[in-house]
Write a structure and sequence with these properties.
By secondary structure, the chain is of the alpha+beta class. It has three domains: about 120 residues, DNA Polymerase III, Chain A, domain 2, CATH 3.10.150.10; about 120 residues, DNA Polymerase III, Chain A, domain 2 (Roll); about 120 residues, Roll (DNA Polymerase III, Chain A, domain 2), CATH 3.10.150. A hairpin with a 2-residue loop joins strand 7 and strand 8. It starts with a strand and ends in a 10-residue tail after the last strand.
């Protein structure tokens, strides 16, 4: 195999694939990328494939020229840093059996790779799937807003992914870590004939967000045991996370006693300042809502404290004092694009609801920090 690469776009694709590469691979296969030439169309391509045995990714990357067809399997951890440091845009990559040869101007490098016989089969299992088609805008918004509530705790393994539930005319993206819930409902271009749900590893959706291109749509196929996301330029396969996922919709209150509208930028700015004086362990911020005014307070005993007041529009009810982990509020606000947000409460011990007025399909729910002497 011998090709000429356009270095920068190739480095960008490799950088994205490195998300699957462990820092210290336990086997050479982990962290290796399979590079196969493709000259069937008018434009020459590399097909890049990598896997961590739970997630597999195949993506096309345009290259400048193919002199000799072939396949080469190289460790990303060696290939990527060399290509990043090179100064020339045109890089020649060729194979000598399982060895990769990189050359540009007066420089050359060798990387020992793997033989094709050592690399795993790329074929996905054949199972009956439920299929829908979603455009980039809906997919990227869902991933961005729902990833924030995925659990990072090993003991909550079944909550360590994003739940995708496909119904007749909706695709719901759901996540929860037991303290908060993110729920976003999308409208597929191609509707499903079967209802099904599966829990997808976060890395698979992070890669989907990176690889899906402008004006592209992705076909989503799910079964009980895996999910697959495909477009004209990539295919991402992921084994489902095992375990029973909770029915989070049951946690959404039907009615709220207190409702207020806040300016997102003002609320975010106040929280960022208060976060500088909050307790490092609890990260608690106290919100007091009364008469079109929201007061924010944070403190670290014996070290620092702060108080900020902002205007708000109280739509219903008033007179509530409630405490939250400030990082959970910041996660919601930093991933929202709305100018205004709606906050709704029932009491200082019950789950609170956060919405965007211009996006009725997105809901963020957050449990307060409850102290005995403050509970109603």
């Amino acid at each position: 195999m011998k090709v000429v690469l356009d270095r920068q776009p190739f480095v960008e694709v490799l950088s994205n694939l490195s998300l699957l590469a462990p820092s210290r691979p336990t086997t050479p296969i982990l962290g290796a990328v399979k590079l196969s030439t493709d000259s069937k169309g008018k434009t020459p391509y590399f097909n890049l494939y990598t896997t961590d045995f739970e997630i597999s990714v195949s993506v096309k990357c345009q290259i400048k020229k193919i002199m000799d067809e072939g396949t080469l399997i190289l460790p990303i951890g060696k290939l990527l840093p060399i290509l990043r440091e090179l100064q020339s845009d045109d890089v020649t990559l060729e194979s000598d059996l399982a060895v990769g040869l990189i050359s540009v101007e007066q420089e050359s490098y060798k990387i020992v790779g793997l033989s094709e016989a050592e690399y795993p089969d790329q074929s996905a299992p054949s199972e009956q799937t439920t299929n829908v088609v979603l455009p980039k805008e809906q997919l990227t918004e869902a991933i961005k807003k729902v990833l924030i509530s995925v659990s990072n705790e090993p003991i909550r393994y079944c909550l360590s992914g994003i739940r995708i539930n496909i119904t007749d005319d909706k695709v719901n993206f759901i996540s929860t870590d037991g303290r908060r819930i993110s729920l976003l409902e999308t409208n597929p271009e191609k509707k499903s004939q079967t209802n099904l749900g599966t829990t997808v590893p976060p890395k698979a959706l992070q890669l989907l967000r990176k690889f899906i291109q402008e004006s592209e749509v992705a076909n989503i196929a799910i079964s009980e045991n895996y999910s697959k996301f495909t477009s004209k330029t990539f295919e991402i396969f992921a084994r489902s996370i095992e375990g029973s996922y909770p029915d989070v919709k049951a946690a959404i209150p039907e009615l709220h006693k207190i409702k207020a509208e806040l300016n997102r930028s003002d609320f975010l700015s106040c929280l960022n300042r208060i976060s500088l004086v909050t307790n490092r362990e609890t990260r608690a911020v106290t919100l007091t809502l009364e008469n079109n005014k929201l007061t924010l307070e944070g403190q670290e005993a014996g070290a620092s404290e702060g108080k900020a007041v902002m205007k708000c529009n109280t739509l219903n009810g008033s007179g509530l004092k409630i405490r939250f982990k400030i990082d959970y509020l910041l996660d919601f606000l930093n991933n929202s694009d709305s100018e205004k947000i709606i906050v709704q409460f029932n009491s200082n011990t019950e789950i609170a609801t956060f919405n965007e007025p211009d996006n009725k399909n997105y809901t963020y729910l957050l449990m307060p920090i409850v102290l005995r002497d403050e509970a109603e």
